[in-house]
Amino acid sequence: MIPLADVAALEGRLGRTLTGDERTQAEAALVAASAQVRAYGLPWPDPVKAPAIVVTVVLDAAERKARNPEGFRSETQGGYTYQLPASLPVAAGLTPSEVTQVQRAAGFLGIHSVPMETLGGSL
């Protein structure tokens, strides 16, 4: 299936042009993030018709992967240490908030009425 966002949009977020292996990895990250979003939401076969928040979530996940392809949680150089929160997903995974946003865009959250029948009659 076609990713819900394109490399050009990801490049805009990163502020640079991706080439070679980096571009190939970005394309794979967009495909993976789109698959995650579709698993929690709807198929959205036409990316142009996908809700803007869905595209944003795909780009957020793909950007995390592009900025941290190895999935490091922390790194240290001399006296400097950088650490990501343990709750932040690595690769193209989604945060709980992103999952909620996708489900809301798909209309899966809220109160719903479901007709039920039992013993041959309606309840």
- How much of the sequence lies in strands comes to 5-15%
For the terminal residues, how far apart are their CA atoms?
A: 41 Å
Series of H and E elements? HHHEEHEE
Q: Could you state the oligomeric state of the chains shown?
A: single chain
- Residues in helices, as a percent range: 40-55%
- Overall form: globular
**Major β-sheet strand ordering:** 1-2
What are the segments in which pLDDT stays under 50 over at least 5 consecutive residues? none
Q: What would the average pLDDT be, to the nearest integer?
A: 90
The whole-angstrom Rg is: 19 Å
Structure, briefly:
The chain has 123 residues and is mostly helical. Helices cover 46% and strands 10% of the residues.
Strand and helix map with partners:
Elements: H1 7-14, H2 20-40, H3 52-67, E1 74-77, E2 80-83, H4 96-106, E3 117-118, E4 121-122
Antiparallel strand pairs: 1-2, 3-4
Describe the structure.
By secondary structure, the protein is mostly helical. It has one domain (7-122). It contains four helices and four strands; from the N terminus they run αααββαββ. The chain has helices at residues 7-14, 20-40, 52-67, 96-106; strands spanning 74-77, 80-83, 117-118, 121-122. It has a two-stranded antiparallel ribbon. Strand 3 and strand 4 (121-122) form a beta hairpin. Helix 1 packs across helix 3 (52-67) and helix 2 crosses helix 3 (52-67). The N and C termini lie far apart (41 Å). The mean pLDDT is 90.
Main traits of this protein?
123 residues; mainly alpha; two-stranded antiparallel sheet; two-stranded antiparallel ribbon; 4 strands
